[in-house]
Amino acid sequence: MALQHLYRLTSAHLFGLLLRMLRNGPTAEDALQDTFIKIWNKADSYRESEGLPMTWMTSIARYHALDLIRADKSARQRDARYSLDETENPGTAMISLEHDVMNSQLMTRCLQRLEPNARDLVIDAYCCGYTQAELSQKSNTPLGTVKSWIRRSLKSLKECIDELS
What we know:
This protein is mainly α.
């Protein structure tokens, strides 16, 4: 009864968020169901001191959507990278894999040139899906500073990649 009432009050907002992020109605519907299961199972972990209930539920939905996006992207990349069609020979696939490894090594070298705080922010933003506001709160750093560090870091990364490639 309580979950049903909570669902009626919040599902439209959460579904809108999921639909905007996932861009697919059936996937967003499934994600909404999964989100409410997570909300119900994690209800005892909610702390009023950490934010409003809707903010907490929105975070659960958002992180679930990000997980789905990452999983889908990873699966598509893996399938594209390792599948061979009739016109592709194994040598072409190996060249593609070597190219991916070289790009990964290049990015690692360029990331190492960044200041540790800025590097952590960029990785958290682009690999973990944190927003700049969340990074500001997480690192106890003013939002403007987080935005500046990320902007400068991205510029430095681009310059480094141009220089080394």
